[in-house]
């Protein structure tokens, strides 16, 4: 089985410099909620519907119904609209100041986010990593699926996260780049129904997954 560093190097060779999560701090937080259970293309359609750049104050001032209409392409509009406003209100507790959030304790921030209705571990970690540059490795369906197919036998997310973090610099920039490369590979090749014939990691895969359900 490949090591985490070997996997990272191969992904870098295939995809080149990662794009990273686009947008300013507020846009990243809002889109982290919008993308739940939907495709990124739907998020882009939703963003195009807003008449101005997203700010926390603007999103908080919007009537929920209007916000729901803007994010309609993402589905689950009411739940997501309410969650976005809860996240913005949380940001307001720090004076809408990204520096204040960035200097706060990571575990404190994570717990505060997890207490918000509609925010799970993955979304909380995305917000911490991409919006506030906290060194947290994001685990999602793509990373779990890829690790299993490569031969990983880890049973818990703690074990999975430890595997990905082994042998690489423990910095937000590294976790940001690595996660985005994993997303790119998952979207292009390692799907639920994988494109094994085209996959650049095919020879490293531990199992034949072409007939996976």
Structure description:
By secondary structure, the protein is mainly alpha-helical. The chain has twelve helices and no strands. The longest helix is centred in the C-terminal third of the chain and has 17 residues, at 172-188. The model has no long low-confidence stretch (mean pLDDT 94).
Question: What would you say about this model in short?
Answer:
It is built from twelve helices and no strands. By secondary structure, it is mainly alpha-helical. The longest helix has 17 residues, at 172-188.
Percent of residues in helices: 55-70%
Question: Strand content of the residues, in percent?
Answer: under 5%
Mean pLDDT: 94
Q: What is the radius of gyration?
A: 18 Å
Which descriptor suits the 3D outline? globular
Per DSSP E runs of 2 or more residues, the count of β-strands stands at 0
Q: Which structural category do the helix and sheet elements fall into?
A: mainly alpha
Largest sheet: none
- Report how far apart the termini are: 23 Å
Instruction: Please work out how many helical segments DSSP would assign.
Output: 12
Low-confidence stretches: none
């Amino acid at each position: 089985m490949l090591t985490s560093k070997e996997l990272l190097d191969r992904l870098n060779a295939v995809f080149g410099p990662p794009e990273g999560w686009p947008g300013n701090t507020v846009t990243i937080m809002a889109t982290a909620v919008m993308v739940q259970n939907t495709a990124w293309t739907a998020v882009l359609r939703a963003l195009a519907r807003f008449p101005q750049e997203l700010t926390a104050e603007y999103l908080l001032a919007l009537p929920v119904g209007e916000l729901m209409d803007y994010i309609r392409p993402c589905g689950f509009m009411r739940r997501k609209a309410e969650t976005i406003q809860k996240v913005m209100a949380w940001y307001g507790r720090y004076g809408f100041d990204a520096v204040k959030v960035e200097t706060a304790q990571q575990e404190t921030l994570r717990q505060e986010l997890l207490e918000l209705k509609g925010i799970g571990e993955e979304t909380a970690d995305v917000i911490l990593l991409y919006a506030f540059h906290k060194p947290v490795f994001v685990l999602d369906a793509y990373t779990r699926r890829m690790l299993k197919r490569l031969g990983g036998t880890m049973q818990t997310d703690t074990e999975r996260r430890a595997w990905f973090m082994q042998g690489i610099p423990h910095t937000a920039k590294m976790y940001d780049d690595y996660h985005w490369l994993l997303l790119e590979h998952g979207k292009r090749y390692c799907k639920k129904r994988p494109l094994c014939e085209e996959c650049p990691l095919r020879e490293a895969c531990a199992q034949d997954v072409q007939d996976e359900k």
